[in-house]
From TrEMBL:
Pfam families, alphabetized: Endostatin (PF06482)
GO cellular component, one term: collagen trimer
Entry keyword set: Collagen
Domain Collagenase NC10/endostatin: 1-166
Designated name of the protein: Collagen alpha-1(XV) chain
Naturally occurring in which organism (per UniProt): Antrostomus carolinensis (Chuck-will's-widow)
InterPro entries on file: C-type_lectin-like/link_sf, Collagenase_NC10/endostatin, CTDL_fold
Transmembrane regions listed in the UniProt entry: none
Length: 167
């Protein structure tokens, strides 16, 4: 399953699932992509189909392995990954080195186990208000689910996950 970033950073007011769907289509990817975010409807840990959570590796746009499988992201270690394996945007840029993302931080709105944090997910990703808070992770930590709180006015990386494998 591919883990890919949106082509631009976003504040806490985003239509992330729609953006993931649209940018995947524009990039010629035929699978369904969902935002790597907890929402008011779903915890991050359950975004990928149950049947695909254990046996498929999580890879970047070029097929390099980031995680052994979806479940391994939520084992309590904060989604530890090798920071030397790039995360690419749908248009092929490395989010860790490209200046389009000045802050190397991803939104997630979740606990380290992928459960939604209702107090820290920018009002279900509907506000960029300076006073509202969102859970995010600085990628330099080598963790997708580091537990840092930021104002929803920040513009951060938004990741998308291919949520079902189509052969």
């Amino acid at each position: 399953l591919h883990l890919v970033a949106l082509n631009l950073p976003f504040s806490g007011d985003m239509r992330a699932d729609f953006q993931c769907f649209q940018q995947a289509q524009l990039a010629g990817l035929t699978s369904t992509y969902r935002a790597f975010l907890s929402s008011h409807l779903q915890d991050l840990a359950t975004v990928v189909r149950k049947s695909d959570r254990y046996h498929l590796p999580i890879v970047n746009l070029k097929g390099e392995t980031l995680f052994d499988n979806w479940e391994s992201i939520f084992n309590g270690n904060g989604g530890q990954f090798n920071i030397h394996i790039p995360i690419y945007s749908f248009d092929g840029r490395n989010v860790m080195t490209d200046p389009s993302w000045p802050q190397k931080v991803i939104w997630h709105g979740s606990t380290a186990n992928g459960i939604r944090l209702v107090s820290n997910y920018c009002e279900a990703w509907h506000t960029a208000d300076l006073g509202a808070m969102g859970q995010a992770s600085p990628l330099e930590t080598g963790k997708l689910l580091d537990q840092k709180v930021f104002s929803c006015s920040h513009q951060f990386i938004v990741l998308c996950i291919e949520n079902s494998f189509v052969s």
